[in-house]
Amino acid sequence: MAWVKLFKKPGGLDKSYQPGSMISLALTKGLLNEPGQNSCFLNSAVQVLWQLDIFRRSLRQLSGHFCLGEACIFCALKSIFCQFQQSGERALPSDTLRHALAETFKDEQRFQLGLMDDAAECFENILERIHLHLVSDSSTEMCTSKSCITHQKFAMTLYEQFVCRSCGASSDHLPFTELVHYVSSTALCQQVERILEKTDRLRSDMFGELLQAANTIGDLRNCPSNCGQSIKIRRVLMNCPEIVTIGFVWDAEQSDLTEDVIRSLGPNLNLSGVRSNLSAPL
Hints:
The chain has about 280 residues and is α+β, with helices and mostly antiparallel strands. The protein has helices spanning about 40-50, 55-60, 75-85, 95-105, 120-135, 150-155, 185-195, 205-215, 260-265, 270-275, and strands at about 1-10, 15-20, 30, 90, 155-160, 175-180, 180-185, 220, 230-235, 245-250, 270.
């Protein structure tokens, strides 16, 4: 997987997001990945978090947390960030965080030492563990704690519902939270091809619409009252997060769609195009 991070411009859901890489003023250092360590997935996630000024500054201001010793991802990440700021070395080890991840997820056999894993899932799991270090008695769903930088900065709070336009039947609201919005790279490129069949070029503000269309391909459900209609699911965004993270899911380890995905990225992201607000179906 890969991801794009975007920052909110002032305003509500109708405002655009700009690529986060244009905003960060952080000095950049490398992270070591010695032969056999296979830590590239972790190093990638750490670099993304480091380049997020909003997150980095908020993490720096926090000290109190529920520490888990050698398995404390919060402490390990803060240690790496401190080294990024103070060390004169051009490349730094991420061993402390790698060991903390391995210890934390040893029962699930994820992120174990010496083994490759998924960068986007590592990124998301680090955010979830930071939440638990800060708000240990709270579920990762619907967290409203002001001290939780995971949900205050990244969380998209949504609900989904089925509404039949034929008979008017509707399902109950199903609330949930997303820290990363995943989209199939293949489906995204298919939508780009569909648009380019009708026009010569993509509009600069079309990225959100492309994401929405890619996410709804084949996503049809039966009417709640079984009237025979197939309906699209409606997902409604209830908040406006400071950081929106888009994760691209690749259908194969070696994909020839990388350049196509990059070309589909617009300079702005209209959040209302990615997730519906109020009553528009997604």
